[in-house]
Please model this.
Amino acid sequence: MAADGETSDVDLSDDDVEYLDPKQCRQRLLLLLDDRTRRLRFEERLLLKVKTMSDSLAEKRDNVESLYRALETERAKVENETLARQAEKAKRFGEMDRNIRSYLTEVIFKSSAEPASSSGGGGGQIVSSGGDPPLRTLLVSYFKPGSSERCDLRYRIDDESTVRQMRADACRYWQLSESQFVLRMSNGSKLQEDMRMLNVFKDGEIAQLFLLPRVQTNTVVSEAEKKAILPKSGKFRRTGNTLGDREMMAGIGVTPEQELRKCGGASLLVRTKEQKPSEYLTRIRFRDIVVYLVLTLAWWWLVLSGQRWPGQAYPLVDDIGRVLGHEDFMRINSTREALVWWQRSYQKYLTPPFTTFNIAYGFLRLRQQKVTWETCPAPVLLLDTVGLLNGRKCTDDGATETGALSPVLEAYWNLQDSHSRSKGGNYGRGITKPYLHQSDGRLGSLTGSSGKTYDGSGYAVDYDLMFDASQVATSIEQDIVALHNAEWLDARTRLVTWSLTVYNPHYDLFLSLDYILETPLGGQPMPRIQALPFRPNTRETVVENSEALTFHIRLLCALYILCSVITMEVAARERVYKAGGKYLFTLLGIADQLIVVTAIFSYFFQLVAFGQESTLDVMRPGKTEFRHYATYGESYWAAFQVDGVMIAYLMLRLSRYFTILRRVWFLWQTLGRLTFKLAYFIALSVVLVAFWTKLGHTIFGQVYGDSHWVDLRASFLSVMRLLRGDGNFLWLPTFDPAIATSRAPTFYIWASVYGVCYYLTMVLVIQKIFTAIIVEQFLLVKLCWDPRPQTPWDPRRTLQWATPPLLFESAGNLLAKAQAYSAKKAA
Model:
């Protein structure tokens, strides 16, 4: 059905619509419209599918074209290589042609100059290819040290002028030493001394030389020098300068420093100390390892020589404390308990098991120091009860008591003295009197647990422990009762000491034993036990003489470290253009210095300080009166402490030689570079942690009363919890719901701000910087590593490393001569 030239979408020619009513026509029309809409949608889907297929086809077409192009490239690869070889061959032939032309030009001009010389003119004069006049004048330039000022000297030459003569004249002109300067050309090559000046420059080259300082340690031949020594004719003829025209015309070339700056990162690597492990291995010498091992073994010998095997040991120091009941002494709480402890313990010094392995040598001294009484000050408040302070006394800790004590004690002691004299003995008592103050300057000072030092003065009583044990025990028992009744120890007592000397024949050692009890005013008594073993002389027995030999060996090793190892390390740093003296401030340098100092100190301390007087001369006075030997014990103990310092640094020094393994070398170099950076970083971290601890305590502890921030210790633990990632307690300060709901809103605002700022500074900044520093230093060391396989360690190389160079070369020469003689004799 058509109307106005348009064609209907549905063919209705067979449909009879004349008999349809309007309703049916409308339904028919709606069906036709639905069918048209469906057809249009189907058409759109077909168009979309066609477009998708077109895109896929285009993509496949591109892939096919790229494969065709790759195939064409592979097919043309052989042809391109052939063309490249032909171009290279043509370029080489062109260079050969230019060389031939240059050679012919030189021969022609040389042949044209020879007739002039034969006719009486100046033969051998250098002329340029352009017909320039012959060379007769040179320009010599000299730079003043420390400045960029250049001084020029115009120098006339003849046919016989040499480089040596010219250098001598130039040094004489500027008043310089001939042995310290050399002549170099503009390209940096050094001139041979016997060369004639006529043969130095080529045609067209600027006749200028530079007088430069001689580098004594230079072992590298530059490229310019290699080209300069090539022959002027033949296969290796020089074809041109190594510098560009601009540098050559300027008269001076680009320095290596300027060339190095063109390479990114190369300048930093050149300045990196100890770049290669091979350079580092030259500082690890076999003889150095042997010396440090000898020092370590000598230390172990000194320690083990005084030890006994299990089952053969005898009680000394720690075991004496167990036998004598030192734990009971440490539990004393008052001066009264001090006498009680002495009454219970004195028998242990006179009976087994103490006397089984030890001998109490000389006298035991019981000593105290007192302060004076004074009138108690008037009370601040007026008391109702008058006379409450009558008869009361107070102590004056600023004044020491020096007067006589109780007359009762004096009468008792005089009675005991008279009774002892009538019986023909003193029953083990010494000459000191407990009621009289004495100041014995020969006695050493003692240090209490509080750190206060006390002199040897005070009220003392001595007992001869080498006397009959039963009589000494009776005297001590009687005196304890008398001292207790006379209140010898009272509120004025500030110090009580028991001092004696013990000898152990199995170890040949003396032991200075001091029991120190401080009784401060109104405070808890502070007991301390000091047990110091010693020997008055260390060079009397066979074992001690063997130990003295060990000290001699240690001294020789220390001198070797001082004269060989330290100087080698300093020179090694100077070879890589570092300040050699800075090695003394490195960790290994400090270790070497302390090893040398401690070894020398121990040598003179052990063999000089303890070798002046014999043991008999030192200990003989202790048999007749009390002598205090704590000074000898402190000196003897100090010597062992010095040895302890030495072995600690020896272990550090030996650990360095594990860096012969490359993996360990990486870690060693990384730790060395991280030392100062991590020290600064750790100091910064400590400051930040202290800041956040104080800030959290101020805000949450003092203002809001949070239990997690109540003091600095709790605040520090809270800061560490935050650093670990546990931050829930910051917003949940307590488990009490009533308190939690009563928190002000500002608390949570402060908590949020504190947590965010803490996370930014401590986590994002500090931890990331810490990781970056470690990774950066390790990668910087890694860049210096040569991954190529190194020379294998065959027996010859191992022997060469383990043998001093002079000895190895001498042995090699002798072996070579022996082999030559054997071959000659066999022939």
Observations:
- The chain has a mean pLDDT of 76.
- The two ends are 130 Å apart (CA to CA).
- The domain at 667-783 is CATH 1.10.287 (Helix Hairpins).
